[in-house]
Amino acid sequence: MAFIYLEILFYPRLSVIQFSYTYRTFALVILGLLIYLLQGAFSYVLLQYYLRSPPEWLASTGTYLSLLPLVIQKQSQGK
Q1: What is the pTM of this model?
Q2: What transmembrane ranges does the database entry give (predicted)?
């Protein structure tokens, strides 16, 4: 938002089209960063939950086998 306010201050003759384009681009960049951070946080929390108590369907698939070194590391740290 500060970037938009600076543009309004320094370029008072900006057309509406240029302003909306700048605002839309800025909003899309911020939204993309927010989604990226939320996705990373969600996957981290999900991984921690599954490492603590893996459900049966996950333990029976090959996905859990790829996480097995992390599980062993977590259990050895807990002791």
Answers
A1: 0.41
A2: 21-45
Q: Which residue has the tokens 């996950």?
A: 58
Q: Please answer whether residues 69 and 51 qualify as being in contact, where contact means their C-beta atoms are separated by less than 8 angstroms.
A: no
Is the pLDDT higher at 44 or at 13? 44
What is the three-class DSSP state of 32?
helix
Q: Helix, strand, or coil here: 79?
A: coil
Give the CA distances from residue 17 to residues 13, 24, 28, 31, in Å, rounded to whole numbers and listed in that order.
Answer: 11, 10, 16, 21
The residues, any chain, with a CB within 8 Å of residue 47's CB and separated by 6 or more, are: 67, 70
Residue carrying structure tokens 């459900």: 55
Domain boundaries, the chain: 2-78
